[in-house]
Structures are given as C-alpha cells and as structure tokens.
Amino acid sequence: MIIKDQALEHSAVLRVAILDLYDGAANEGMRSIRQLIDEMSADFHLPLKYDIFETRLTGAVPDISYDAFISSGGPGSPIDSEGSYWERRYFSLMDEIQAHNLHNPDRKKHVLLICHSFQVYCRYYGYGLVSRRKSTSFGVMPMHKTFEGIHDPLLRSLGDPFWAVDSRDYQITEPNDEKIKARGGAILCIEKYRPTVELERAVMAIRFDEAFFGTQFHPEADAVGMRMYLLREDKKHLVIEKHGEKKYWEMLDHLNDPDKIMQTNHAVLPRFLMMALQPTLKSVSV
Q: Which single residue of 52, 60, 108, 135 could bond 211 by disulfide (Cβ 3.0 to 4.6 Å)?
C-alpha cells in the first residue's frame, strides 16, 4: 500500500529496461514480462514505462538512467557466447550498474536475471560452474529453499517448496559460496533433492547483493503461456519421456492451482519492481 499511496502523489515516469536475450526466437517470456509490468502499473497506479533492448540479437543495451533492469531468458548455450560482441556490451553495462550502486548506496539500480541471463552472469563473474545437463529439464517443478531463501523478501511469501517453470539444458552447480557471501549474497533455493540420484543439485536462485537477484527458473511464467508450451507435441513428448504420462497431466492440472506457478508469477517479479522503484518513489513523492 505504501507504493500505491506514493505513486498517486506524483507524476514522474518510472522507467524499466528489458534486456531481451531470446536472440529473435519465439517465446512466451517477453510477453509475460511485459504483461506483469502493465498489470503492476494499472493495479498500483504507477506511471511505469518500459523499453526493450534486443541485446543478444543486435548488441543493444540501455544506459543506466533506468530505474530497474530485467534481463530475460533465452535459447541455446550460455557458454558458447563467451567473448561475443553482445556479451562484451552486456557485461560492460553490468559493471557500470555495480559501480553506480557502490557510489550511490541510497539510489541503487536493481537487476533481475532470468534463466539464460542468470547462467551467463554466473559464468562470467565466476559464481558457479555452468555445464550442460544430462537431459533437458522442462515443466512445473518444485524449488526447495535454503535458510536464506525462506527469509528473502522476493521469496518469503512462497511455500517451501514453491513451484515454478523450469526450462533448461544447462545448469549452475559447484557455487562459489565464499565469493557469493563476500558480496553480501546467498544461495536461495535449489532444484528438487533426490537422494537416490548421485548428482549435485543445481542452484535455482541467488541473491548476489541487495540489488542483483537471479533465478534459474522462470518467475515471469504464467498459466496461459505454460499451457501453450505443454500442449505442443515436442514438449509433451519431452515431459512424458522423462517423467511419465501421469506427471504430464499433473503438470497441466498444476496450472489451474493458484498455489503453484501463478503464486510465483504474482510474487517474484512484482516484488522485485517494488523494491527497485522505492528509491525513485521516495525522492519524488510530496
């Protein structure tokens, strides 16, 4: 309510930069991100404006005048693009944001890194090992919180485990705990623990610091987009092959459950924006 009351008292435009890493591929992620921003603008009477930058396709990046940055998921390898033109521009921006935050502790720029963005970020800065999975992970999956994840402001309203869309061929394992903690961060959740499988559980979310937050899962995913994916023959075959037909139909049923991915959809990204926009709202409120 604080944000809503403040927003009603001013007319400043709050600006969000969306970094599109889908490389021109068809997707539901960008639609979901845009929809969440539009819904938040309407629900809280916030004058939110967003601009989209096709970073991976054209190398376009925003300047740091924006109030918040959302970096999307995307297809393909988070390893093969190392040293590419778009990555050089992308990480130059990330460095610039971190430098700004260091010198402006009361006016930090917040960054949300989703899936592919999370992977390349962890690889570039050495926060964990990025590797290809033995098989694709796709579906509505449980995310198991760490102690820090239970108390994190973006996740604390969600259950343990909570449910989210997982869609990846790569993973983050062997996290550099010392480096993460030195920055003031923490691992927030991991993939489902399976004691019968002798494989390290992948990291599913990291808070790198007060302003940088990354997820391997898709917090923006909604029931409409996920249903479209699950009904595709290739995705249906993938889920049934890995988890069985019963699990496939359970996933479709989960889409109708308000305590599953829609709860995650309504929590993570909207709360990220609330935290990111607070400094601007305070500075312009009457």
A: 108
Q: Provide CB contacts within 8 A for 153, sequence distance 6+.
A: 271, 275
Helices (H), the chain: 2-7, 29-43, 55-58, 85-103, 116-125, 147-151, 177-182, 223-230, 233-243, 245-254, 261-284
Q: How many CA atoms lie within 13 A of 19 on its CB side?
A: 30
High-pLDDT (> 90) share of the chain, %: 69
First-to-final CA distance of the chain: 16
> Average pLDDT in the 202-229 region?
93
pTM: 0.89
Q: Which of 149-158, 182-191, 216-225 has the lowest average pLDDT?
A: 216-225
Per-residue model confidence as pLDDT tens digits over 92-132: 999 999 999 999 999 999 999 999 999 999 999 999 999 99
Q: What is the pLDDT of residues 161-188, one digit of tens each?
A: 999 999 899 999 999 999 999 999 999 9
Residue 218 has what DSSP assignment? Answer: B
Residue 252, domain member (yes or no): no
CA atoms within 13 A on the CB side of 273: 30
Domain that residue 62 falls in: 2-135+142-222+262-284
List, as one string, the DSSP characters of 32-89: HHHHHHHHHHHHTT--EEEEEE-HHHH-----TTSSEEEE---SS-SSTTTT-HHHHH
Q: Residue 172 to residues 98, 136, 192, 222, 273: CA-CA distances in angstroms?
A: 22, 14, 14, 24, 25
Structure token digits, residue 263 = 């709860």
Let me know if residue 246 belongs to a domain: no
- Judged by DSSP in three states, 176 sits in coil
Domain of 180, CATH number, reads 3.40.50.880
